[in-house]
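Contributing new records

If you add data, match the layout below exactly. Sequence lines come first and carry their own label; structure lines follow with theirs. Keep one chain per record. Anything else will be rejected by the validation script.
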Amino acid sequence: MNEKNIQILKEYKEYLRGEYPRTGTKVGHTQKNYHRFTKNFLEWIEENKNKTYKELTADDVQKYRVYCMEKYMQNGNVGRLSAVNNFTIKFLKKGKKFRISVPLSVFVKKNVLSKEELNTYLKSAEKTPLDNLIAIYQIDGHLRPEDFYRLLITGHDCKNQTLYVTEAKSGDDSVTLSPRMEKAFKEYLQYRVKPKRK
């Protein structure tokens, strides 16, 4: 990423810390998501328009909206496009002409497990470190079954509490590693079967 975009992203992160402070020991979801979505936006602008944040136009922002609406699910775009509005209008103070419309969330009826069912599921997964890891990643990281085969050992950044997910269905490229996820990952590494050398 261009140095100017890297620098403004750092400044925006500081701004978000003031606007959306930490809650207890957890970083606020809004702070984390707005930073990640803005990083994606700046990368797209750089790759597709060969521009830095200083050269942004209202048309660039509208084209990014079209790109998101074509590529990602509607509910994911609520946060994604709200982050762009926050960055361009509130942080950069670009003005109302940069505002992009944000889609309404679509209600999706999901069968959610009760607390007792989740505990039963976790208990049944304690048999092996791999089963335990999968169950905890599903519950804490909200990972879908199709996300698991894309996970890499090197995609785990325990220092920054981040798990990078390649081509996630949700469009998100990372999730926050909860303490429970990190513990399960480290336990899994101790028991992981190493491939035999030929």
